[in-house]
Specification:
Elements: E1 4-9, E2 15-21, E3 27-29, H1 30-47, E4 52-53, E5 62-65, E6 68-71, H2 79-91, E7 95-99, E8 102-104, E9 110-112, E10 118-123
Parallel strand pairs: 1-10
Antiparallel strand pairs: 1-2, 3-9, 4-6, 5-6, 7-8, 7-10
């Protein structure tokens, strides 16, 4: 069964974080992969709740920090809520998702995982004043 590496990078290609999930189906949609990624990162966070979250999207009531989000207080996160926010962010170009050497443009696009691919997520940062 395939494995996939989820990797966060800056727009210039600097790696920020990475983790792997194994035993996946041979083909999954972008939506399924985003939801899987969010579920995994929230599960890891909820195992040791803290006041800082390094994930794909900002939790409710969190402030943006360098490469993460500061929560007002340590608490558990709802992965389904985070996944819904991630899907909306994908649709509004809040981040790009690359599968291999190509950009994924549709949540329903199927991605072949048989080659143990890397999925790269590049978060976009809004420009100040614009």
């Amino acid at each position: 069964m395939p494995a996939v590496t989820f990797r966060d990078e800056t727009a210039t290609g600097t790696e920020l974080a990475a983790f792997q999930v194994a035993d996946l189906p041979a083909v999954m949609t972008a939506r399924e992969l985003i939801r899987l990624r969010v579920r995994e990162e929230v599960a890891r966070f909820n195992a040791r709740p803290a006041d800082r979250f390094n994930g794909l999207v900002r939790p409710d009531d969190a402030e943006v920090e360098l490469n993460g989000y500061r929560l007002r207080e340590a608490r558990r996160l709802d992965w389904e809520r985070q996944a819904a926010v991630a899907e909306k962010a994908f649709l509004s170009n809040g981040f790009f998702m690359l599968a291999g050497d190509r950009q994924v443009e549709d949540l329903d696009e199927e991605i072949d995982l048989t080659g143990d691919p890397e999925l790269v997520f590049i978060k976009l940062v809004p420009l100040a004043g614009g």
